[in-house]
Amino acid sequence: MSIRVRLDVAYDGTDFSGWAVQPARRTVAGELTTVLTRLFGTVDGLTVAGRTDAGVHATGQVCHVDVPADRWETLSAALLRKLAGLLPPDVRVLAVTEVPPEFDARFSALSRRYEYRVTDAVHGALPLRRHDTVAWARPLDLDALNAAAEGLVGEHDYAAFCRRKEHATTIRAVNRLDWRRDPDGILVATVQADAFCQQMVRSLVGAQLFVGDGRRAASWPAGLLSRRVRADEVTVAPAHGLSLVEVRYPEDPADLRSRSELTRRRRDAD
User: Fold this and answer.
1) Cα separation of 174 and 182, whole Å?
2) Phi/psi of residue 161, each to 5°?
3) Largest distance between two CA atoms of the chain
4) CB 133, CB 152: distance < 8 Å
5) How far, in Å, CA of 15 to CA of 27, rounded?
6) Contacts (Cβ under 8 Å, ≥6 apart) of 220
7) Backbone angles phi, psi at 31, to 5 degrees
8) Alpha carbon distances (Å) from 76 to 26, 100, 166, 211
9) Where does residue 218 fall: left (phi above 0), alpha (psi -120 to 50 degrees), or beta otherwise?
10) Which of 14, 45, 103, 244 gets the highest tally of CB atoms within 10 A of its CB?
11) Could you say which enzyme class this protein belongs to (predicted)?
12) Whether 67 contacts 45, CB under 8 Å
């Protein structure tokens, strides 16, 4: 008998080749799987809400895994402490929760929210923030960035901004995309959608930065939505400015199965 467990995870993506396990490469899933196997003897189906690319960080990543029920009963009370002692310092499990078998970290999710940090300060990123803040060499205009962002919100085919996978849809519903300038001068983009295709967030940000520094018109990024292939003129923003900060799920556990089934049908239909 097995128990399904939800893990809320944070990591510094600097020294990882992304989330997914890869031969001879250090990955977040690889580190977690090694430690979970050591603790539980066997684990099955480590599934993540959103696979992050090499160099991308997370403060609110979510994954699930099935573990033996007897081992869960023995370890659950002290599991967070044990994980903290066994995992490397650039990965932390923030919470471990038993969840219904209907919970699926990927397909039950309602939305994913990312933040992207940029500084246009002449001196560049501060030393303690150099791993999560991109230095932009040109001054950036906040109003121009938000004007560019406005035209990208909604349900669209984002093929121009995605690394295309065969038989995979590039239609997504972006329900939030905006910029703010924090008191320390850092510009932060917030991007939220039902899901994202590969490199979509960084491509959206890259296009907007070219508007923010005056090299493109505010209407240019939205104009690319009419394309059905990737736009080569869009620069993919550097990975290290991006962090996954939140994944939302239905509040009522009874809605988990229906949400998962709906998401699967949409992906199959596309």
Assistant:
1) 23
2) -115, 10
3) 60
4) no
5) 8
6) 148, 207, 210, 211
7) -65, -45
8) 27, 16, 41, 50
9) alpha
10) 244
11) isomerase
12) no
Residue 59 confidence (pLDDT): 98
- CA dist 80 and 95 (Å) reads 7
Which among 53, 104, 120, 132 is annotated as catalytic? 53
Please tell me the predicted confidence (pLDDT) of residue 268: 55
User: What pLDDT does 252 receive?
Assistant: 87
* Angle value at C-alpha 151, between 146 and 153, nearest 5 degrees: 90
Instruction: Residue 152: name the closest of 225, 81, 87 by CA.
Output: 225
| Cβ pair 57, 11 in contact under 8 A | yes
Amino acid at 134: V
Q: Which two tokens stand for residue 88?
A: 């490397």
Q: Which pLDDT does position 270 carry in this prediction?
A: 44
DSSP collapsed to 3 states, 229-246: CCCCCCCCCCHHHEEEEE
Residue numbers of the chain with a pLDDT score lower than 50: 269-270
Identify the CA nearest to 256 among candidates 108, 45, 111.
108
